[in-house]
Amino acid sequence: MAKAKLGIRPIIDGRWGGVRESLEEKTMNMALAAKKLIEENVFYSDGTPFECIISPCTIGGAAEAAKCADFFSTQNVCATLSVTPCWCYGSETMDLDPLTVKAVWGFNGTERPGAVYLAAVLAAHAQRGLPAFSIYGKDVQDVTDNSIPDDVAEKILRFARCAAAVGQLRGKSYVGIGAVAMGIAGSYCDADFWQEYLGIRAEWVDMVEVTRRVELGIYDHEEYERALKWVKANCPEGFDKNPENIRHTPEQKEKEWEFVVKMTLICRDIMLGNDKLNDVRPVGAEAEHSGPKDGWHEEALGRNAILGGFQGQRQWTDFMPNGDFTEYNRHKSSLAKLKCRKHSRWSKADYNRPVFFLNSCALIIINSAIWKLIYNLLIICNIIIGCFLCKRFQIRIFIIDNKLLHINTVYIHNVRLMSCIYRSLYNVGLYITVIL
């Protein structure tokens, strides 16, 4: 996984001759403290610490801001946290990258309080249409105190968790397997929504791809044998309530179990890819079909997906086993979490990446215990990302069915009122956001 990072920008009063020199150590200490706090408390979905990098120089003007931006552009920085203990030059030092999520921490100190810069630079962000989150402590600290108060730490960590979530979504794909069926509008994949508001590419795969891979053996056969063995040991069948004349025979059910296990592995491979498919060669009846004889290289690449949906249920399930088993195992409900982590070891890669599976309204994450609260990704991202105000502070409100509701274009000329509204929306987002 190409990991997004958080960039820390130490902002300083650019006046040489005693002013800047006296602030270098304190400014850099704030950056180092923020980096330590975040890396000890915020994690990627694979359990590793959320990586922070610090600008190669303190930033006192436009030249150093550009130097920092050039460095961050090589490091896959998805968000920036600007920190300062003093007055600085707002529009000369602010982060102007429209693609980064921004926050500013102004030190509440006994000397040269950062509140002045914080207010000035937030106004500059508002004027430029680049929202930034405000971080400021309620208690005054001595200038020599390099600790981070609890209220400031909470705000920094909230921002960092949002940044980690946004960074891992950006540039990934949503794979819709199938299409809208049974009139379920929630299965409609709105490509504009995914791209504009979440930074996610929309992909479509016809459901015939599942049957093609089953028939041609395009899956990891060794993993399939392990998976099938686990299913037989841990997935007892319930009672069959169908009338006897239409019940499937034990032989039919055995074939269906084999099929749904293969389908589960195949859907995972479609989303993430699987290097082992490079070495899978057609054998037996499979070899009679056309296709590569030295491995399935295109299929091994996957679709770079972080989300996926098994959507074409009606016509598929009139003819084939449904997707419930696949969804159950690609989800992580509380029950699936216990069973998968206790019993299943189908593939280490399976549990080392943040993979979601979406079916209409159902959405639960698949990966490790660090994700304590993600129930509905769309709602979270709508609030975290969608609450950003457009130019001239046009208000946009998102509702669950992914329809964009425009409230008669509202222009807010009062910066303080804009800030209050934006901060309220942001706090709502944080209330239900990712808790790592």
Quick overview of this protein structure:
By secondary structure, the protein is α/β, with parallel strands linked by helices. It has helices spanning about 20-40, 60-75, 90-95, 115-130, 150-170, 190-200, 210-215, 220-235, 250-270, 295-300, 315, 325-330, 335-345, 375-385, 415-430, and strands at about 5-10, 50-55, 75-85, 100-105, 130-135, 175, 200-205, 305-310, 355-360, 360-365, 395-400, 405.
Can you walk through the features of this model?
This protein is of the alpha/beta class and 436 residues long. 41% of the residues lie in helices and 13% in strands. It has 15 helices and twelve strands. Strands 2-1-3-4-5 form a five-stranded parallel β-sheet, with helices on both faces. Strands 7-6-8 form a three-stranded parallel β-sheet. A two-stranded antiparallel sheet has the order 9-10. α6 (191-198) links the parallel β6 and β7. α1 (19-41) packs across α5 (150-169), α9 (250-272) packs across α12 and α14 runs antiparallel to α15. The longest helix is centred in the N-terminal third of the chain and has 23 residues, at 19-41. The radius of gyration is 26 Å and the shape is elongated. The protein starts with a strand and ends in a 5-residue tail after the last helix. The relative contact order is 0.11. Mean pLDDT is 75; it is low at 333-375 and 389-436.
